[in-house]
């Protein structure tokens, strides 16, 4: 049973359709999942900025600064020597079980987005268990008009959705589906 | 004659006597937040400081304008539908689909007109605010976005984003008066209580202050990155800076920047309560609203709302007590 819920994977364009002559618009993706374990247990596993080992696509995390604001981490994807993503922490609350970070450096061939920021949050679920919400906002990989297909808004949304989905699926596997 | 017409007549009479425009209307302070991603309308009671309803609102809603007599107007940019909703129940009372690119919206209570900007066709639609039938179209520059009506009801203005100008009209006769060059890519605009028009320029990160009746640009004030919305309280202008996650505070006396207030991430729609004691800001990325005290310049509350709040327009008012 798939308990993942797509809350929204939609363009944020205020204008009615694609922006044509107005350049890219900021996109937003929100995915949530529900797991059986209590929030404290889930947060203990995913609430450390310098440890992304819970995500199946991450081979290693090299952290600097722990969970302090402006801490950084370098994610290596897939395998040793794989592509990397550099990120910085800009908000952290153990009490709210939430942290926010930005990507400072990534090749658009690795993740076709620019100006990416994200929140990861664990909340209690009515009836027991936890809700994990992963939310991102970003621009597509191509900054100008008429992007190539692999760097357009749809490609950016699809890529981020895929990353979140894989991470949240792994959490359901690890902590059990909420019932 | 409709009830609302009678009320409008009374209001005109009171204005003629120099009485306060809202003196005969007891308003609770309620925020109506349009959420573009979640396709919902969130109703937030500022007395109780909590969300009291969340209603479905399809078609990627962004534009909003509070009306009188329990009316709320919304623009769904995706489905191109303008709705008149009940503030109490959220139900649709009337609606119209507008072919083109409807975005911004403003309500003229004196003449029961609604203005909607047509992003793609250099026009404003003029609608009857009850039936939502199109009564007229007005010419603007390229990509009109925000619309505002002066507090004395005499002037209508649109921010024409891709022509870097503001179009000014006589709100009574609907005659075009002038087009005024402003900063780069103006998007949101609003009239200050003293009648000056403040225009946020997202491309040049500043605010143009105009005398709309003469077309004179009185000042250009630097603000934070990507100014989106403008509201007024306590002799100050407050500008939401999308990229800077802050409000720029400008003194209406000196037109100088006074302070910055940190709010949520990607702040957009902003409005002030009637008594000027609170400001409400919709944070698009955080799915929250920040409630700010315009006296102390501090955030007094942060409340959860629906996904992707934009609240582009006047969204505070109503819910008759």
UniProtKB/TrEMBL annotation, chain A:
Pfam family, one: Polyketide_cyc2
Coiled coil spans: none
Signal peptide annotation: none
InterPro entries to which the protein is assigned, alphabetical: Polyketide_cyclase/dehydratase, START-like_dom_sf
Protein name: SRPBCC family protein
From TrEMBL, chain B:
Top-level taxon of the source organism: Bacteria
Gene3D superfamilies: YVTN repeat-like/Quinoprotein amine dehydrogenase
Record NCBIfam families: beta_rpt_yvtn (TIGR02276)
Protein name: YncE family protein
Organism: Ruegeria haliotis
């Amino acid at each position: 049973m798939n308990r993942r819920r797509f809350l929204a994977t939609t363009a944020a364009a205020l204008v009615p359709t694609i922006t044509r002559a107005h350049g890219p618009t900021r996109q937003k993706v929100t995915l949530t999942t529900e797991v059986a374990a209590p929030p404290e247990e889930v947060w203990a596993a995913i609430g450390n900025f310098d440890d992304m080992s819970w995500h199946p696509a991450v081979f290693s995390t090299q952290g600097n600064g722990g969970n302090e604001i402006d801490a950084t981490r370098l994610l290596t994807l897939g395998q040793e020597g794989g592509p990397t993503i550099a990120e910085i922490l800009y908000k952290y609350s153990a009490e709210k079980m939430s942290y926010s970070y930005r990507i400072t450096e990534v090749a658009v061939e690795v993740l076709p987005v620019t100006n990416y920021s994200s929140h990861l949050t664990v909340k209690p679920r009515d009836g027991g268990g936890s809700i994990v919400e992963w939310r991102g906002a970003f621009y597509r990989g191509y900054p100008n008009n008429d992007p190539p297909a692999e760097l357009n808004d749809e490609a950016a949304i699809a890529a981020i959705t895929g990353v979140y989905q894989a991470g949240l699926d792994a959490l359901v596997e690890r902590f059990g589906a909420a019932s | 004659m409709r009830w609302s017409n009678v009320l409008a007549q009374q209001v005109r009479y009171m204005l003629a006597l120099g009485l306060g425009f809202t003196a005969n209307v007891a308003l609770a302070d309620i925020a109506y937040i349009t959420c573009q991603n979640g396709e919902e309308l969130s109703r937030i009671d500022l007395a109780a400081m909590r969300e009291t309803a969340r209603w479905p609102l399809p078609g990627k809603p962004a534009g909003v304008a509070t009306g009188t007599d329990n009316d709320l107007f919304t623009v769904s940019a995706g489905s191109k539908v303008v709705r008149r909703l009940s503030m109490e129940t959220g139900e649709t009372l009337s609606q119209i689909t507008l072919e083109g690119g409807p975005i911004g919206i403003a309500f003229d209570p004196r003449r029961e007109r609604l203005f909607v900007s047509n992003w793609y066709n250099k026009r404003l639609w003029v609608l009857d605010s009850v039936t939502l039938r199109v009564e007229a179209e007005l010419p603007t520059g390229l990509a009109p976005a925000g619309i505002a009506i002066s507090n004395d009801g005499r002037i209508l203005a649109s921010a024409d984003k891709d022509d870097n100008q503001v179009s000014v009209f006589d709100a009574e006769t609907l005659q075009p008066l002038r087009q005024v060059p402003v900063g780069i890519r103006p998007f949101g605009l609003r009239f200050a209580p003293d009648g000056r028009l403040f225009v946020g320029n997202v491309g040049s990160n500043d605010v143009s202050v105009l005398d709309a009746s003469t077309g004179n640009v009185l000042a250009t004030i630097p603000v934070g990155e990507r100014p989106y919305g403008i509201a007024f309280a306590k002799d100050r202008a407050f500008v939401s800076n999308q990229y800077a996650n802050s409000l720029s505070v400008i003194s209406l006396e000196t037109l100088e920047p006074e302070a910055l207030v940190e709010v949520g991430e990607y702040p957009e729609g902003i409005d002030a309560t009637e008594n000027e004691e609170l400001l409400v800001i919709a944070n698009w990325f955080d799915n929250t609203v920040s409630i700010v005290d315009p006296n102390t310049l501090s955030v007094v509350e942060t409340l959860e709302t629906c996904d992707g709040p934009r609240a582009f327009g006047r969204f505070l008012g109503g819910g008759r007590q």
